[in-house]
Design brief:
The chain is built from 12 helices and 19 strands. It is of the alpha+beta class. Strands 13-12-9-10-11-14-18-16 form an 8-stranded antiparallel β-sheet, sandwiched between helices. It has a 4-stranded parallel β-sheet with strand order 3-2-1-4, sandwiched between helices. Strand 1, helix 1 and strand 2 form a beta-alpha-beta unit. The relative contact order is 0.12.
């Protein structure tokens, strides 16, 4: 029986862990959180941090794995690539994966290789950027180089807000580095979704429309997506072409990607993220509802060196969304209440990480998320109406602390 090492056991990683078992692999999980719910579905669990590349390599060699997967985890993706490279397992170049998972390296790579990219530079301290900030045109974005899910991302309108933004970005950066980049005015929705390359060719991509909140939180923090994409055929071809060119330049082979792209007023695509892993927030599940394609299967097959040639582009049918569960106030979690008609006709899945009695924070970034819901609509117009007024469809009930 082939052995696969799954990096992480969080709730959103459970579908991949369970699928690996269904595919008759011997499943080993590891992270530094033994209470994570995914570990109960594995054959073995080891208390090793997924970002400690040397310890994971030592574990992988000891148990003699056949493949390694960093499902829906940006921080673990370099570890998977490193271990695969060292052990001669199926994978992608470690240096390329490092570039894709560190925003300063990625922006530098894009610029040097003449891809579309905003003016950007990486820093380690406020003093460094304070001496150069006048070279940037405001507004600017300040981002940790190695966080995900909008954690530590701050839009800065004027110099007076820079220091606080830098401190927040450094707080969320594991390597204590941040990138500053000029803001891009987008046309329409930001493009968000997943793709997959086989032998270096982007054979599948499925895009949705990124959803943001302008109500009570930062209006550039992503809260979910909905499918189908509103891109025209020509716009999607431009996005796919830009992604393909990056994949080729980095010599990526068989790999899932979480993709974030902005189109400007001239339909020029700017690749904001090309994470070398499946998307979080149950994006692969949403794509399966939308297209019938199970990207988890191909992620596992690729990691185990199995044939992925059957994967091809697939059209979206129906209208689908994932949306974060978030509280507008601090307190003690009691329950989630759904509007009855929404629960009956639209709601598909509820993945809540909070338990009754847990302390919850008012949402500022994804570290305050309480999980994700998946739901459907009869039309794009109905979906837009729901997502624009999501507070009418679910409520997090909290009690005072």
């Amino acid at each position: 029986m082939k052995k696969v090492l799954m990096l992480g056991g969080s709730m959103q990683q459970i579908p991949a862990i369970k699928r690996a078992k269904e595919m008759d692999y011997y499943v080993i999980t590891c992270d530094y959180l033994p209470e994570n719910p995914g570990h109960q579905y594995a054959d073995e669990y080891h208390n090793v941090s997924t970002t400690d590349i040397d310890k994971v390599l030592e574990l992988a060699q000891k148990i003699n794995i056949d493949g390694i997967v960093a499902y829906a985890s940006d921080p673990a993706a370099p570890t998977a690539a490193y271990v695969a490279e060292k052990m001669g397992l199926p994978g992608n170049p470690y240096e390329s994966v490092k570039i894709l998972t560190q925003k300063d390296l990625f922006r530098e790579f894009l610029g040097k290789n003449r891809f579309n990219t905003p003016k950007a530079r990486g820093y380690s301290s406020y003093d460094e950027i304070a001496n150069e900030v006048d070279e940037f045109i405001f507004p600017i974005m300040v981002k940790p180089v190695d966080s995900s899910g909008s954690k530590g991302v701050v839009k800065v309108e004027r110099r007076s807000g820079l220091k606080d933004a830098v401190e927040e970005a450094l707080y969320y950066s594991r390597s204590k580095k941040f990138v500053v980049e000029e803001f891009i005015e987008k046309k329409g929705y930001q493009v968000s979704g997943d793709g997959f390359s086989v032998d270096g060719k982007l054979v599948f991509s499925s895009y949705g429309n990124e959803l943001y909140s302008g109500k009570g939180t930062r209006d550039y923090l992503a809260l979910g997506e909905f499918w189908p994409s509103l891109l025209t055929k020509e716009q999607k071809e431009k996005v796919d072409a830009e992604i393909q060119n990056i994949i080729t330049a980095l010599n990526m082979r068989n790999c899932a990607y979480n993709i974030e792209v902005i189109l400007d007023k001239n339909d020029t695509p700017y690749v904001i993220e090309l994470g070398p892993r499946n998307g979080g927030s149950y994006i692969p599940q949403l794509i399966e509802y939308s297209t019938g394609v199970n990207l988890i299967d191909y992620t596992l097959k690729a990691a185990m060196g199995e044939d992925c040639s059957s994967l091809t582009m697939a059209e979206t049918t129906g209208v689908w969304s994932n949306y974060m569960l978030l509280s507008k106030e601090c307190g003690i979690f009691d329950r989630i209440e759904f509007a009855p008609e929404f629960e009956k006709h639209n709601l598909l899945e509820v993945h809540c990480t909070a338990k009754k009695g847990d302390a919850v924070e008012a949402y500022k970034n994804t570290s305050h998320s309480l999980g994700t819901i998946l739901f459907k609509a009869q039309s794009v117009s109905e979906m837009i109406q729901i997502t624009n007024n999501i507070e009418n469809y679910y409520k997090i009930v909290v009690n005072s602390k």
